[in-house]
Amino acid sequence: MYHRQLATSPTAETPPPSLVASLVERSPSCLQPYLRLTRVDRPIGSWLLYWPCAWSIALAGESGCLPDVRLLCLFGVGAFLMRGGGCIVNDLWDSDVDGKVARTATRPLASGQISKEIAILLVGLHGLAALPILLSLNTYSVWLGVASIVPVLIYPYMKRITNWPQLCLGIVFNWGAMLGYSAVRGYCDWSVVFPLYFGCICWTMIYDTVYGHQDKEDDALLGLKSTSLLFGSKTKPILSAFLFTMLSSLIVSGIQSQQTWPYYAATLISASLLSKQIYSVNLDNRQECGQMFRDSWGLGLLMFTGLIISTLLKHPAEEEKTERVAFDTPSV
Q1: Does residue 323 fall inside a structural domain?
Q2: Reported pTM
């Protein structure tokens, strides 16, 4: 009876009203299950995967110049493909529980619209489509990208063995904060990249913990773990601590890369907006939790805009102060 109640719940997963969701609804019926399997109708996940890439590309850009448009486009396509493949991997891992959770019961694998064999084939096709993008980057970036494969594959299993699957997601989802920088520079200046990466992980902890509150009742009954359940009634103060850490990390990254005032303005405004969201969101209201997650798109755009303007205002002489060459061996 429990399974049947969850599967027929009126809160079962339905696409939020959007232009993309409407286009998916109007597409041929034979394609719709595949588009929903890769969450084409829910583009926010692709954007959240893309923004750390875009931030780091802008952060690594040459002073006084716009970020590399070619790399921004390549990483945009790559984010779309990798997010789609990651969603399929996630649904394959969760095919035994998605049908028992109200929000995910209608997903194509859980509802039997697509077989596991076809889903595995689609994962391979997404990987093959993304491979030329990775191979077009420098050697350092190629190996850095390859290193992300293992955490990507094991992340969906984390909710079964740890209370911190959102942290695991943050590690995976923000890999682009390193990869974008190395794609521009050919190396990672860790004094700049690590605080950016860590700040992005804290951001993921915030939006995905709130997102996870949509499923907390079902997850508890199914024995699945999450920071939403772990933090419980202390979620808001804990997320406020993550917000402070995120803000501090992004400021450190800005200082280390000699950013100008628009970057810090965007960072402070983003932190203020996120603080307001944390304070006002009703964690027992699924619609509000989902809306806060979707609103994260705007924060990503705000930070990206601040980075672009900041870099345009930087004087080329400042670049010389921070330019470093990786693996530089002193001559004897």
Answers
A1: no
A2: 0.87
Give the three-state DSSP class for 105: coil
Give me 174's structure tokens: 């923000």
Which domain range does residue 95 map to? 28-318
Six token digits for residue 205: 């902890």
Mean pLDDT of the chain, nearest integer:
87
CATH (domain of 173): 1.10.357.140
Question: Would residue 159 count as lying in a domain?
Answer: yes
Chain mean position to CA 26: 27
Using CA of residue 141, residue 171, residue 269, residue 18, what is the dihedral sign?
positive
For residue range 300-320, list pLDDT tens digits in order.
999 999 999 999 998 775 555
CB-CB contact of 108 with 142 (8 Å): no
Residue 115: CB partners within 8 Å, gap ≥ 6? none
10 lies in a domain? no
281-285 long-range contacts (CB < 8 A, ≥24 apart) are 281/210, 283/210, 283/213, 283/228, 283/235, 283/236, 284/213
pLDDT per position as a tens digit, 100-145? 776 777 788 887 888 889 999 999 999 999 999 999 999 999 999 9
Q: In Å, what is the CA distance from 265 to each residue of 24, 82, 200, 247? A: 37, 31, 17, 11
Q: How many domains does the chain have?
A: 1
**220 assigned to some structural domain:** yes
